[in-house]
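Follow-up to my post from last week.
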Amino acid sequence: MKHFEFKNDKLIVLDQRKLPFEKEYFVCSTYQDVYIAIKDMIIRGAPLIGIVAAYGVVLGFKEIIEKNMDLTKIYEIINYLANSRPTAVNLFWALERMKKIFKEARNLSQSQIYSLLLDEARKIEEEDKNINKKIGENGNTLIKEGANILTHCNAGALATGGYGTALGVIREAHFTGKNIHVYVDETRPYLQGARLTAFELSEDGIPNTVICDNMAGYLMKLGKIDCVIVGADRIALNGDTANKIGTYSLSVLAKHHGIPFYIAAPVSTIDFNIKSGSEIPIEERSEDEIRFFNGKKIVPDESKVFNPAFDVTPAENITAIITEKGVIFPPFEEGILKLKEW
Amino acid sequence: MKHFEFKNDKLIVLDQRKLPFEKEYFVCSTYQDVYIAIKDMIIRGAPLIGIVAAYGVVLGFKEIIEKNMDLTKIYEIINYLANSRPTAVNLFWALERMKKIFKEARNLSQSQIYSLLLDEARKIEEEDKNINKKIGENGNTLIKEGANILTHCNAGALATGGYGTALGVIREAHFTGKNIHVYVDETRPYLQGARLTAFELSEDGIPNTVICDNMAGYLMKLGKIDCVIVGADRIALNGDTANKIGTYSLSVLAKHHGIPFYIAAPVSTIDFNIKSGSEIPIEERSEDEIRFFNGKKIVPDESKVFNPAFDVTPAENITAIITEKGVIFPPFEEGILKLKEW
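User reply:
Got it. Predicted complex:
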């Protein structure tokens, strides 16, 4: 099966914490299970978080029916799911879509509402795959034959409904025969690069080399990087972009070396309600993600640990934002506002 | 005992790969053992590599006596030890000192030569401790009250004869009551920061916080870093400095944020024979340092891995070089040439 599936009123997700060497599935029978899957990063990636949360609403509504609760309890469930992670806006975007469906359908029968919610979740999922393919095609116009591309974290099939955002562009470049090679930041502390991106690329036969995050600048200096492509967790109106911690440093390094720096993300990652990145909440995660590695302690107890999960890359460090509706260039606000109208 | 000791014709070194949670010692009875200790990073740190190699020559000479070999075999042994690691110049510097002693003493009795070689190794060790203290005092003039200092890798007591270079400055600032706090890059792949620097600082009661390497830029952007201090493995005449991989990126990030970037190193780290950093050989280490973590595989087999152990920070990114003979500022070549004459 693929990395998630909604079947027989259960959402089954591949446990991404165990990849690539163990394939374990986590079964979400309740919306609380979905909350855990998101919060504990059993699944991750902004678009996928949105899709999974939508199915969480479906499971929540099922429970409302079964336990004969007030239908408006769904608002509580939606709020609960919205609290699973703070930074990726796709979560709130998907939950808003589900809320809208409920509001429009609330006078229908319970089973009708359930069907409409499930349809919407499936639609969010299906749309995302097509969106990614389109992002890939749009982004591919920026990729040169034989390019060495650096990516950070995992903005791949595993982070989305399929195909990927940053990796969608990379896949498209590869499958159109551009003979590319990818440098993959291992991406501490969670190693999404080494474990997930390298795995996805290797499965698709895309040549790739894993490096430690601190090696990227040196590679740029050696002239080994032609462009950087990463995903996004939230994009502000002015183009400021929150993404996995370390993205900001890469953007400064890319700028210093005159290397194009691209963001690839669906329009659902744009937060049209915020003007700049300073309004994006940055999640701090558990110290233990850094203190322990595979259960083995690596940091002395007396030392503190700081573990921000994201950082914000300012618009001025971004060469272009690749969306399913086209590639936008600075000044971003203009292009972003057009996307809203589109 | 301390982290290394020469006693009863054996060099006993603390296995730094196991720190901080296991204290295991590796006993070098032969110069080949010393070679392994350096090559396999049982011990590391440019100044310590020099000291340990000097004791390796002593052990080599002991074997020459015992096996009644030609005394000039010592040159072969010195060359052998010189091949243990390519980047840190202190190794070659210490071996040159030992060679010089041998040359001057070669007409004396075997036991006299042995004594002189042992004296020289002890002298290199003792000098290094005093040098570090002096580096600490000189560097402390640059540290402000309450400073938040970022450091990378381990340029501490464990990397030297004692006290440390970058950590010598930090210790001096702390023990003169400056109320400093240190951010420690965990320093992938070997985690010298998380395992060694955090350990040393915590042992001395110096407040410290461990971060992943990819978080440093974000901290700078947040205004949380007042200066960066790192050690060095080799400094060219123009001030270009080789140090642990990731140092170059930090220097670019520091420059971008207007944060002072300091190198702390003994004069023995200066290679007066090379004009610029482009002449410094950069060691590439085993892929397995990145592929495996505590014996657990983290990178798919199909992916390649690139593991450069060092990078070169260009002089223009360095605010000052702190040595035992004083602090030098740009243009560095002038100051460095004065150090040579000094």
